[in-house]
Input
Amino acid sequence: MAPRRPAELYRAPFPLYTVRLHPRRPLAITAGGGGAAKTGIRNGVHFLQLEQIGGQLSASLLHSHDTETRATMTMALAHDDIIAAGQDASCHILRFSLQPPEAKSSSGGQNGSGEKGPRKRKGPSPVGQGDTQSQTSEVMVESLHSVRTDFSPDALQKAVRFNADCSLLVTGGADGFLRLWEFPSMKKTLEFKAHDGEIEDIALGPDNKVVTAGRDFQCCVWQQDQLVTGLHWNENLPGIPDKAYRYQACRFGTVEDNAGLLRLYTVQVPHKRERRPPPCYLTKWDGKSFLPLLTRPCGSEVISCLSISDSGTFLGLGTVTGSVAIHIAFSLQRLYYVKEAHGIVVTDVAFVPESQRGRELLAGNEAALLSVAVDSRCKLHLLPSRRSLPVWLLLLLCAGLIVATILLLQLAFPGFL
Output
């Protein structure tokens, strides 16, 4: 059965580059911008409230945080209320809080950052779509730190990650340097040249090991500034030259039903475009030995972003041509695919958290993936439960089959019972 077309949850007034979902609140945070200094298109971070209305997941704009001339390209969340936002050559640390309606100040509807919060409304938001609902809270945003994280001529922070206990922040960018920062002080503790060229992605694993994917065809595992190992995804595929593919993304995910184990997942994309595009590849690695466990092709559309569900069950992929796919992490088999869901490059994807609140938002679906793109849209992709029959019906059918078998045996062999 073909998947349903994704629903458009929200449309921003600027290109969207990143999306994150709050682990315990029905809150999505999207960010991006259009280069206000040159284009006049504003830049910002938008806070969206998610809720089930009439059996459908809807989004309403709670707050728009203006980032002036800086477009947010990358983002990470910590401690439930901290955002590390990669804006141009810097990382900006923001703290946000949700205030109930009765806690709003009477000073003209302004929040702690001096911005005007949105007023209560019953109709659609002028920024969102027709399913935008009335406000219930106000978001307060304050800026805590700003540090420069890239020093190349065309400086751009391309990746940012917190470690598990949020005591460490790691950034990487166009200059190829990996920089480690104490958090929350944002004191730089280490920087070193990790790649010759841009760092495309960062993943933090056990014992604060850092995995970096670069445009120099390398994917490396670091302990502090010491190289632990380089990854070789094609070592069992001798027909693929070393520099035919580069690493685009890397993520750690838990092993389903065994949260103590981790797997590393990487995406490899062709280095050069050809008339007949070769396939991209997904690789699953052992999270301790960093040996490849499984590699499978994942289509000829160039992969732009990767996300993993909380339980480690699903991988979400976006492509430069706007398509979105969901794969099973165990087998790397594709389970869901919508061609050109956006029609332009998908810049980020994120799964709805599998917390209690997230399960309420899923409303019986097995998973839900949000995708954002340069077309300014945030779209919802639902993965219906793969179990076609409820458990009680399966048990009833089994009981009926047993009874029928006994009756047939009684007819064939009188006196059987």
Summary: The chain is about 10% helix and 45% strand. The two ends are 45 Å apart (CA to CA). Residues 391-412 form the longest helix (22 residues).
